[in-house]
Design goal:
The chain is of the alpha+beta class. The protein has three domains: 6-172, no CATH class; 178-330, no CATH class; 344-453, no CATH class. The protein contains 15 helices and 14 strands. The strands form three sheets. Strands 1, 3, 4, 5, 7, 8, 9 and 10 form an eight-stranded mixed β-sheet that branches. Strands 12-13-11-14 form a four-stranded antiparallel β-sheet, with helices on both faces. The longest helix has 39 residues, at 347-385. The radius of gyration is 32 Å and the shape is elongated.
Length: 455
Amino acid sequence: MSSIREIVFSVENNPKVPIKIDDSNLPVENPRATVEEFEVYVALGILDGKKGAYLVAKKWYGKAVPEGAIVYYKYGTGSRKHTYHKYRAFFIVKNVGKKKVLLKDMKGDVDVEIEVFNLEPLKPLDDEKLAEMEAEIMNRGWLPSNYQPVRTLYYYWIKKGSESEKCAEKRSTPVLINGFLVISRLPSKALLDASIPEIFKDVKIGRKEIKLTMGYFYNKLGTLSRKFYNQILPEYAVNAGFGYIVPKDKVAEFLREVDLLKKEYAVFEKQLKQFLLEGRIPPEVEANKRAKVDRKYLDIVMEFLRRHGKDEEVRRKIESLSIADRLRINLLPFSVDMSILEEYVDEKVRRRIEEEIYSVRREIVDAVRKQLEEKARAILGRLEKYAEAKLTKEVLEGMRRSVEEIRKMAEEFGVESESLRVLEGLMQLQDDELVRKVAELKASGRVKALLEMVM
């Protein structure tokens, strides 16, 4: 079954309030021919279909509803063949308490005053305004859903926005992505290639001898770089294609890891200088027979320096060698923010910038979704491989923490994930029930089927 691949607007994270519509004053001609529908919408998203990308709405089913959600209320009564009274109304959820609202009868002549709770009525759009919204939606490359009131939702949430702006979490001109862009520059092996020959430039020692002497330190510098790019960044940041973005809730952990990495670079620099100046071999090299530092070549270099009176000059250069200070890892506040469009009066400029913003947004969302699916599938894969006896309380707690991290990431970037939905359904079960459920799924081969379903 297809799912929303990108959320373009959402009020799901807004504060929640209870809502109610008292229908006791509405006419009832025949109870069996009376229909009442109550739909709550909290987001607009993109769903891929056969004819293209459709703009669709996401519903809310909880009793407490996010402020800024839009409610579509429908009521009709009559006989089995004919409708005598029909009422339609849109409301926006706001913490306003009780209110009297007049519903116009669209079929008969019985207008009715009803009482609503935490709901503010919205003016229905006329045909001209609905056509205008449809054109604007299609100009963005989307097809409006024919089964949901997306034209009205688009108008009040995105086009007009003034109603939603009054809600606790402003989303009328939404910040689609909010995080920190990683700006990094790490010392590389090329730094040693440039620095060490410079130190020994007046000494007749070849590059080959220097590299043999420095084997461990060349490798260590590469190891530190890989730790940042292959471990820290994938763990705490999202690869958006053009760069890495750290979500707000991951910033503290990311910075902690960066601080530890900086300390490792400082230790590296200290050990390098001690090696070059004193011939002191790092403790991890002494303990690891596979690490290569050729002491013979070091002795040749140092003896050559002493014979030619270059040792003091070289010492000054070594002591001034800077490596740790060259490490630059900074976070730049980054947001894909629609409010910037308010600065532009020219409609063509606004539309062009809007297209660019949504293009960046799609690129980021696609990258996030890919990472989410990979992480979720990895957990599903672990569930398949674990025997029932191995699904201990500790293992399940670890899985639940991982699922919660994935959920936060999906929420942060407004991304839907089929794998995550499957996992959340499983993780809501109690431990014993979850173990039995996984055992049943394994026995029937359905865990494998779940994995195949979300691949």
